[in-house]
Specification:
By secondary structure, this protein is of the alpha+beta class. Helix content is 25%, strand content 23%. A hairpin with a 2-residue loop joins strand 15 and strand 16.
Length: 473
């Protein structure tokens, strides 16, 4: 038995976010101009200030106010000059605007970076995506075999990962099923993915979170909330007050993948070579499309179509298998609807095609679950996912204000939770917290929103990439 070595080339179709667990606040970055923002190097900035200026800056940081760093610098022209010389890195982007035209400095979930401050994609993120895709692929081939192992009761508790734990053990714990050490048992130890080649901060962008409603959801529940007028027939979705620091669309990411051939003995006839991996990923993304994405109007979303193969950019789908270009995709334009250029139309079979996948945080629940594979494409699947999500995000309401909503939730088979309405200056501020997962079955999809990232006014499918697999040198 040997080890197969591959070069993975991910090309981001949408913004990709892999967080480090830390957020920037509006006091950590400021606008340079209409197209760029800057993250402040606070340590260098403070070293350039007088003791009085340091005190004033610290007072600003400690103040419990919504003032942004831009507002503070605007009041202190000399400090603004210093700040522009103490920039950690710059990001090309246009800040979102409030209704009155002011810039919005929302919290920013940071991207993971190495010791030198360079963003990179951890191999664990890609291996996790491959693990989920492989699990879904094997379950989809024989769902009856695994259905009895699904623990539906666990989805309503605190440890929802237990619901599919027995299925994972059946698929991956193949050598020593009675041992307690998961690492020893798990056959995915035969798969190794390196961290990516470091990227540049120039590859980063702030993406504003946006949840788009499904085709069947008109958004009429937004009536009376200042979001939609009585005359409007449709409300598209929710623009949320958060940015994510992401790898910008169109960025190429390179990693290496090693597969020990011993894993093939446990995959029920599947060979985990380049063709096998592409088959697994194609089946996984295809299921995600059929069960979820097809329920949304994504006509205005960049790069949202054509999930089974390469990104719909009109380029040749041929991917070089060897030589210095291994793992890279041909840059020629495709001819007609063949998907290949004139040079490679006869060589298509000797290369590999790009396939779609989703990685990172902020991606759709349906792209990282095996419930679709387990329950197929019927109503049971939608209801089961809605149960899982409702347990995590239940409807909370003040019963004295929302008796009709409480009745609707109960009629759908769910139990709403009580809350006390909150008032501000004598006016109702919040009387309910309703993610409406109780309504998913009626809408025919769960969840009923698709996760998008907005960059420069253009919306993208969060986390979507195209993946090419070539032989490593």
């Amino acid at each position: 038995m040997g080890v197969r070595h591959y070069k993975l080339t991910l090309t981001t179709v949408g913004p990709v976010h892999i967080g480090n667990g830390v957020n920037y606040s509006g006091k950590d970055y400021f606008k340079l101009d209409d197209k760029r923002v800057a993250v402040l190097d606070a340590k260098t900035f403070v070293s350039r200030l007088s003791p009085e200026e340091v005190d004033e800056y610290c007072e600003f940081l400690g103040a419990d106010s919504g003032n942004s760093l831009a507002v503070f610098l605007g009041r202190h022209p000399r400090l603004e000059f210093v700040a522009r010389e103490c920039v950690a890195y710059r990001i090309e982007m246009k800040l979102a605007k409030a209704r009155r035209g002011t810039d919005q400095y929302f919290p920013v979930a940071q991207f993971v970076k190495d010791a030198h401050g360079c963003p990179y994609v951890p191999g664990s993120s890609v291996k996790g995506m491959l693990r989920t895709a492989l699990l879904a692929y094997l379950v989809q081939r024989n769902p009856e075999r695994y259905a009895a192992l699904y623990d539906a009761r666990a989805t309503q508790g605190n440890d929802k990962s237990r619901a599919c734990k027995q299925i994972e053990r059946e698929v991956f714990w193949r050598e020593r099923p009675n041992a307690s050490d998961e690492v020893v048992n798990d056959i995915m130890r035969y798969v190794s993915v390196s961290d990516s080649v470091p990227l540049s901060t120039d590859d980063l962008v702030f993406a504003k979170k946006y949840d788009k409603f499904s085709r069947a959801d008109s958004g009429r529940h937004k009536l009376g909330m200042g979001k939609i007028s009585k005359e409007a027939q449709y409300y598209e979705g929710n623009a949320l007050n958060i940015y994510r620091e992401c790898i910008r669309p169109g960025t190429r990411i390179e990693l290496t993948l090693d597969v020990d051939e011993r894993i093939d003995a446990y995959l029920d006839g599947l060979t985990l070579d380049d063709k096998g991996l592409l088959s697994v990923l194609e089946a996984s993304f295809g299921l995600y499309e059929r069960c979820f994405l097809d329920r949304f109007d994504l006509s205005g979303v960049s790069g949202a179509g054509g999930g089974g193969g390469a990104a719909d950019d009109g380029r040749c789908r041929y991917v070089y298998q060897g030589g210095p270009l291994a793992g890279r995709r041909c840059r020629n334009r495709s001819v007609g609807d063949t998907g290949y250029c004139n040079t490679h139309k006869d060589q298509a079979g000797s290369g590999s095609k790009e396939i779609s996948c989703c990685i990172g945080g902020g991606v759709d629940f349906d792209s990282k679950t095996i419930v679709n594979a387990l329950f197929g494409e019927g109503r049971d699947r939608v209801y089961e996912i809605s149960r899982i999500l409702y347990a995590q995000f239940p409807t909370k309401l003040d019963r004295s204000l929302h008796q009709e909503l409480e009745a609707d939730v109960r009629d759908a088979g769910f139990m709403p939770m009580g809350m006390r309405a909150m008032y501000r200056k004598g006016k109702l501020s919040k009387g309910k917290d309703d993610h409406r997962h109780w309504k998913d079955a009626e809408l025919g999809v769960s969840p009923h929103t698709v996760k998008l990232g907005e960059v420069g006014g253009q919306k993208y499918l969060m986390g979507r990439c195209s993946l090419a697999i070539g032989e490593a040198q």
